[in-house]
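ARCHIVE RECORD
Type: protein–small molecule complex
Small molecule: manganese (II) ion
Source of inputs: curated submission
Record status: active
Notes field left blank by submitter.
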Amino acid sequence: MTKETHQTTAPAPLVSELQHAREMIDAAQSIVIIQAENPDGDSLGSALLLEHILGDLGKDVSLHCPVEIPKYLRYIRGWDRVEADFNVQADLAIIVDTSAQVLLSKTLDQLGVAHWLQTRPVLVIDHHLEVGDLPFSTTMLHQEAAATSMVVLQLAEYAGWKLSAEAAENGLIALMSDSLGLSTPSADAAAFAAATRFVELGANNAAIEERRREFMKKAPEILAYKGELLQRIEYYLDGKLAVVHVPWEDIRAYSDQYNPSALVIDEMRLVDGVEVCVAIKTYPDQKLTGKVKTNLPIAHDIAGAFGGGGHAYVAGFRIYESYETGLRELVAATDAALQRACTTAAA
Ligand SMILES: [Mn+2]
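STRUCTURE (tokenized, with ligand):
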């Protein structure tokens, strides 16, 4: 058997990158871990994974995210340690799971934080390979992987840092979250190997899933409301575009308990012929937000037509218009994006 077959994680980033990241952490006593303003299971799980590892190394660690951790992520133990305040006493910042300026604008707007980031060491640990556009200099530790927690795991194994069972649990949560339970195209052998490693170190996937489900439980009236929303879905462009409208009265009545669009948007994606799903929420001041989920990689394209953005399959936008006008523009933007996708596929 060759040595490679024993490799338990993805091809390592450059050893020099790992070494540099390790030196930065070794040199710091107080470390702030930053999540961008779109926290998800990977960013939160990876932040907590790092918090446990660095805490066990004797570091003082604080967790920063400029927005509240969404309710659906609160099955992840430790979410309540994440603070909106940025600890400017820290001597190192680690940004997890992003290197896009637009996602850090709320952090950069906090008093003194932009200056802090321009003058202190900043390490970015990420699994997106796009080159970032951060307005301050950073050291990157990144590689193509199914989740940021896999890159953190590599760093820990390289540096010889121990992972407690709590650390491993957060690493597994991050990985399962970004890979939708190891079912996305990014879930390669390295992702399964990392999952195995986290389980060996004490993570229990069934227990995590049970907690997550317990947290997803909803009141009977929410299920009834879901039935109403399902009745209201409308189809355009020969059934390729599915739209559901969530007016302000619904937001006011239900959103404390459950995000209305999250109740139905994934099911809309599972309808024959549907390529694009949009949940439009309308607010009293004519603000209108659109959450876009797609089966073709055109979500960012559609959101971009409204000045919004996001990822290939999930994106969002915000405009100030009436519902009727917004809907008309959405149909046109979706039609154009679908045509571009067809042209690209045919080329
Ligand atoms: Mn991620």
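CURATOR ANNOTATION: The CA atoms of residues 35 and 65 lie 5 Å apart.
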